[in-house]
Amino acid sequence: MVERPSLAANEIGLGPALTAERVRELYAGLPYSLIVSSLMAILLAALQWPLVGGGVAFGWLGLLGVVQLARVGLALHQRRRGAHAPFRALWHFRIGATASGIAWGIGGYLLFPLTDPAHQAFVAFALGGIGAGASISLACDRVSVIAFVVTALLPVALRYASLAESMGWAMTALVLLYLSYLGTNAVRTQRRMDEHTTLRLLSTLQQQRLDESEAKLRHLFELSPVGITLNRLDDGRFLEFNDALLLATGYQRNELMQRSYWDLTPSEFVAEERQALADLRRNGRYGPYEKFYLRKDGSRFPVLLHGVLVHDRRGRELIWSIVQDMTAARTAQEALRLSEARWRFAIEGNSDGLWEWDLVSGEITFSARWRALLGYGDEVLHGGRVLCGELIHPDDRAATEAALMGHLAGDSPQYEALHRLLCRDGSYRWVLTRGKVVERSEDGQPLRLIAITIDFTERKQLEEELDLFRRIVDSAAQGISCTDAEGRVLYINPAHQRLTGFTLEEMRGRPLAEFLPSANQAQFESDLATARSEGGWSGQFPMARRAGGEFVTLSHLGVVRGRDGEVRNLFDIFTDHTAELERQQALTRARDEALRANLAKSEFLSRMSHELRTPLNAILGFAQLLETDPDLGEASRDDAGEIHKAGQHLLGLINEVLDLAKVETGHIHLSLEPVVCADVVASCLDLLRPLAEPTQIRLEAEVASGAAVQADRTRLKQALLNLISNAIKYNRPGGEVRVVVTVAERVRLTVVDSGIGIAEQRLGELFESFNRLDAEGGPVEGTGIGLVITRKLVELMGGTIGVASEQGVGSQFWIELPLAESVQLLETAVGEEVPAPAEQPSRTLLYIEDNPANLKLVGQILKQRPALRLITAAQGRDGIELAQRHQPDLILLDIHLPDQDGYTLLAQLRQQPATAHTPTIAVTANAMVGEAQYASEQGFDGYISKPLDMGAFLALIDRTLQGVNHG
To answer: Residue 515 and residue 542: Cα distance in Å, rounded?
Structure first.
């Protein structure tokens, strides 16, 4: 009785073979099963034709034919593929069997007559027969059997069940039982067939393996480089041996067959040989041990012996021995010993770090220089840490390990890696490691690697510095060229190529001077000579473009000297200076044009000031005289007052327009000094009270104690007067104006009114020139430039101006200025009228003026000083003559005279002994900023502008005459 295998086919490695055998059997029986099933299908369709009709019968036969043809195609495809992919072929067969079963199931359903029991039974019988045949032909694969019979017979069972009668249910049960039987039988049949096939395959496999093993052993025995022998234990005669033993001993095969191992053993080794044989009988093996064998020629050679005790079929004791010729090994050992000695000497004497890695034992030997390089002494350093681990910088580990592993695998001729190693003191040093596997096993596995480690730190630093320098030079916007000592081009950067159009290939090795305009080449050689002798040269120089033309460069020629001080290289760093030269020329032209425009504007302003103020001088002067004339009637004095008022308004408009022009052209000069806020505020309120009284507007001040700003007193007063006058003019009757001064990091002067206010959306228009916010047609006069001038003056003094307003409630305008560093209280009499001295001596006053109206006005004003005698002259030369004749105590001199200007005339007066020290006051309609300072520098003792303020005019005359001794 055959014993059933205890292991499944897959567990002993026969799964694929078993599957291939199953596929072979399935496809081998497929043609016969297709033919039989086709004939039965035709017979079934013919018998059922009368009951179900020809269309149904033919339709089903067509469907079955398509399935059968598909299975034929799969069979042919499998035959072409052979035994390739058996599992896929098996599943293809199972799918075909399932499709065939479905086709038969459809036939059973369609050909099943509902009213003829006999034909119903025939259909069931036919399908049962088909199922039985399938279970036989497909017995080796239970999946195919079950898939076919279930899909083929289950529709018939359903048809019987649909009859809903006792016979139908009985037939249904029979069909299902039949299905169960076929499925169970398929499982059992496949198991038995698998066991039988497995045993057959296993037997075949074992025999194949036995044959292969015997062939391998024989092959190894014959080809082994080590001697192998089979000897009898009792007398030592040779029974079997390989060619390696013949080669080592020098015998022929027939000669050695007549000898024993005793014939090859020197006499001194007989005792040792007997002891080895005793060990063999006791332990079943002997060795390894070394001794000498005798060659055929009588010479000796070392051998290493070891063997085992075996018995042949007759029970004789035999010895299988391995006889290894140790001649080459001993020679190699001696050579290795010498090589290692030399290697140790090389390791210790080399200036670079050396190390050797035994990949079998894992031991690494480091030279003293290697350890000294990293600062290690006798510490134990394991190879893993050195080669790919903790000592290698984390950023370098992956690349270093990849290079090492690639070389060990034979992908590269040598191992080379540039990486950082951790020193004992915690720092890292760059090293270049080059190594090579010097010994590999027969199968190519690396056994020993020798490497050298070179300190690369300084070179790496130099490379990084050189790379940084190169990247800087290449990315520089300036053109850079480098030549040898003779001026031949070695290198140009991309900017040089871009600016000139010449490439490095075109210029390399050629004199740099060749790429300059021909007219400038000689000068360039001279400049190079200057650079060589003086260490450098800088200046502008023309340079040629490859496409034609030239451009101006701003160049610096420098030299690079060697250790001996000799010039090694020259370099030129330059920029395209053409656009800059054009810009400078354009700026020069613009500056000259601006200077001319400013000069013309200054001339215009000076002339406008003079031409406008001259007639106003007469208007305002005579109006003031009329207002103070006691003989004039009340109505006439009122008329004169209106004239005076209108003239003052016109003068204010002129002053504002001229101030705006001065500010915008920069012709205004400030004198910043500490200014006490209380004095300025009080002075402004006193001046503007007459403006507020007609509408009963209250003027109040709240000034922080000691508040002082760094400002120009006159311009600060001008700004405050403008803000306060606006607050009065645009207020409501009976309203209020408050000036509040607060001190924080800066001083804020705020003018608060209770007036009509300004719409928030229009606050941005306040500081636009000539924009009065639609107040042009109202009762309040103005130009719309006061706030513009105020803001510019405040900003020139380093301050800011701001506004907040609410329509119908009022407005707040504020000025913020820097705190004064120190405060010096000064009393001033500017604008105050000085009464005539109680006892005024008789004085002579000369007034040189070409305008008759101004002469008449001054004459009328001086009537308030009866002690003064006035003489006049209309031209400069007449004035000099009168001054020489009368020697006046004071001279009033107009700056603009028809024959000469006042400054020239003053110089002439100072040259005359009689008038060299006579006080002289400039009286002019030119009220430009800086005019008074200029007049003082030219020698004038006083300055007053037209239109004349009668009180200020008389006060200036009185002060000047007080300093004159009367003889």
So the answer is: 10
Are the beta carbons of 892 and 871 closer than 8 angstroms?
no
What CA–CA distance (Å, rounded) separates 815 from 751?
9
Query: What does DSSP say about strands 673-676 and 698-703: parallel, antiparallel, or unpaired?
Result: unpaired
Are the C-beta atoms of 239 and 230 separated by less than 8 Å?
Answer: yes
Rounded Cα distance, 229 and 57, in Å: 82
Residue 310's H or E segment, with its range, is: strand 300-311
Helix axes 117-137, 86-110, angle to 10 degrees: 170
Positive or negative, the CA dihedral 9, 14, 18, 19 is positive
753, amino acid identity: D
CA of residue 811 relative to chain centroid, distance: 53
DSSP notation for 654-720: HHHHHHHHHHHHT------EEEEHHHHHHHHHHHHHHHHGGGT-EEEEEE-TT-EEEE-HHHHHHHH
Q: What are the beta bridge partners of residue 864?
A: none
- Listed in sequence order, the residues at least 6 apart from 587 whose beta carbon sits closer than 8 Å to its beta carbon are none
CB 916 within 8 A of CB 910: yes
Mean pLDDT by 10 residues, the chain (967 residues): 40 62 73 79 78 79 82 76 70 80 81 76 75 71 79 80 76 78 74 70 69 70 81 89 87 90 89 87 88 90 90 87 85 76 61 81 82 78 60 88 89 90 88 89 89 85 81 83 88 88 89 83 82 82 84 86 84 84 82 70 61 69 74 72 67 60 59 86 85 88 88 84 85 90 91 82 60 47 64 86 84 89 40 49 87 80 86 86 88 85 88 89 72 83 82 86 67
Rounded CA-CA distance 23/328 in Å is 57
In a 10 Å sphere around its CB, with 0-12 CB exposed, 13-18 middle and 19+ buried, how is residue 372 labelled? exposed
Residue in the structure block whose two tokens are 């052979």: 82
Nearest by Cα to 393 from 345, 347, 353, 428: 428
Strands 353-358 and 446-455: antiparallel
Half-sphere exposure of 537 (CA within 13 A, CB side): 19
